[in-house]
Design goal:
Length: 246
């Protein structure tokens, strides 16, 4: 990864951005923009994507004009995507107008405010410090390895939670189906027993009430066992949530 700094901005902000880039360069922070990386005849999108991918720092200059340019939003999305997949890349929003708003997908990032003349110098100092720190950061292999291990552990825990949720869903469906079946069989057994007792079904007089109640008791026992199993599974899932801090 290059230690360079790439600037994303709307063309209508060229005058302000040119001043900003000149001030950064004077303070030892050289920058690049689309005008520097796109050669005549080159594919604009491919060139920009390559520049953002290679840069250690990406400055996102925001104004009322940048919000109206879809390609600016596309470049910002690409920068965020590269930041999520690349260790050490920094994306820094820079507000140059009071009316500027941060796009929703970078609202979580701390921005530098250069929107007014009285904020410019102080904000510029903060920006230089931030870019310098990010640009000169050294990636340590052991930290990268630890990050990968943490990511794998998080993915495994997520899979465990997903499996537990799927099992609970299946069990709940099974309980609902079994409850419906038991209720239906109970109604049939009660109706059958009533008809036998009333003498309507004389050839089934050998069937007694204790057999019917025994059948229902067995079904209720099965249902109780399933419910206890579900409660234990839910308790285990809750323990996993507590352990993972989710």
């Amino acid at each position: 990864m290059s230690k360079g700094t790439f600037v994303i901005f709307a063309h209508k902000d060229l005058e302000i951005v040119t001043k900003l880039r000149r001030d950064l360069d004077f303070r030892g922070v050289p920058t690049e923009s689309a005008e520097d990386v796109v050669r005549p005849g080159a594919d604009f999108g491919v060139a920009i994507q390559g520049a953002i991918r290679k840069a250690r720092v990406v400055l996102v200059v925001l104004s009322r004009f940048s919000a109206e340019r879809s390609w600016v939003t596309t470049e910002i999305s690409l920068a965020i995507s590269e930041q999520m997949s690349s260790t050490g890349k920094a994306v820094i929003p820079v507000i140059i107008e009071p009316e500027a708003e941060l796009p929703f997908f970078i609202k979580h990032l701390q921005y530098v405010d250069l929107s007014t003349s009285d904020k410019y110098q102080r904000g510029l100092s903060h920006l230089v410090d931030a870019v310098t720190t990010a640009r000169d950061a050294v990636e340590r292999p052991e930290k990268m390895g630890t990050a990968r291990v943490d990511l794998l552990l998080a993915e495994r825990e997520a899979l465990e939670l997903q499996r537990a949720a799927q099992i609970n869903l299946r069990l709940e469906r099974a309980v609902l189906l079994t409850s419906t079946l038991v209720g239906f069989l109970g109604v049939l057994a009660s109706l059958f027993g009533g008809l036998v007792t009333a003498g309507v079904l004389k050839k089934f007089m050998w069937v007694n009430a204790s057999a019917i109640f025994g059948f229902l008791a067995g079904m209720l026992t099965v249902m109780t066992g399933i419910l206890v199993y579900i409660l234990l599974k839910k308790k285990r899932t809750q323990e996993i949530f507590k352990r993972t801090g989710r």
